[in-house]
Amino acid sequence: MYVLNRNSAVADERHIYMRSSNNLFAIRKYWAAFSVLMLHYVGFWRIFRGPHDGPEFIFDRVTAFPPVVIFLAISGFLIAGSLERSSSIREFYVKRIRRVYVPLWISIIIYMAVYLVIAREYMDGSIVKWILASVAGLAYTPDCLKDFASGSANGVLWTITVLIELYIISGFLWRYLRRLSPRTWIIIVFPVLIICNVLSEYASQNVLPDFGRKILERSFLPYAFFYFIGFFVYLYRDHLGWKTYLISAIAFVIVILMALHYWPDYGYYTGVVRGGLTAVITVVFGSWSPKTEKSKHLSGFCSFLSRHDITYEVYLYQWLVFNVMICLGLFSTLGWIELCFISLVAVTLVAVLMNAVYRRINSALMKPANMI
Questions:
Q1: Residue 214, in any domain of the structure
Q2: pTM of the model
Q3: Is 370 inside any structural domain?
Q4: d(C-alpha 303, C-alpha 159), whole Å
Q5: Neighbouring C-beta atoms of residue 210, cutoff 10 Å
Q6: Whose CB has fewer CB within 10 Å in the chain, the N or C terminal residue?
Q7: Measured between alpha carbons, how far is residue 124 from residues 26, 115, 118, 274, 327 in Å?
């Protein structure tokens, strides 16, 4: 069996480092999850009511640091840690299935139950394709739901598809990636990934037909740059010094200026400069340890958020909540503040409930495992 690094003193030390109270990733994950929620809320407001100062103010704040990029960078960092702590690649994949697929499969059941109530007259045989695709973690909207509510069965599933691809690749290439020198990453790997991102944007805008653009959107290639920044920082986090934090602070200022002054940038999903800087900021400051500064309150807060991590459920169920709100006509009748409040509360409550369901099912069906 291929052993990664189990039972070694280094692995034990790094496992301590990865404890939830020992970094700020929980705060970053919550920020990203609810930023995505607000981004979609503003998108639906624009569709039904047009631009408005209030929602646009929210949009500008949550997109200054692209939330999906934050998710990708954190995932890269934590997945590298999970690979290092796993006794084998098989164990790593089993943990990924339990953490990614089990909540996803639960959400499919909930989505289907709700759609059978509120969209029964739209249902036809194409819903079977949606169920099969969703079970595999593939983003797909059946023909029968394209004219219902938002026109999408689950509009956020594409990011889960991308993450699954990146997890598979990370497992296969782990033994090689962990041996790459920093110079190889900086001179070869990252330039190649940047080119992939830029060419993806060019192809999407100028070359590919609609079907090709959808395939590209669900491919890992345009997003790998942001993910592997997190991966790289984990591998070499022991070398992070004050210069790294200074560079990240400068990057923070640059991103803010880019957002305020609309500086030109180019890339897929977001500009490659803003996205890359956001990824660096996320993992460098996210990996900062409150315990280093003996901040008990912040350390305890981070630990609490990690123990009650509902961010995945926020991501999984927000589209269902929005479809129900659209079906009830709320986006056509209520004010933007009321809708914002209802969106936040409804999604949070559903996420808390479904996270509890997942934890109970997971503990009943499987032995506890060390998950990130």
A1: yes
A2: 0.88
A3: no
A4: 26
A5: 7
A6: N
A7: 41, 12, 14, 43, 19
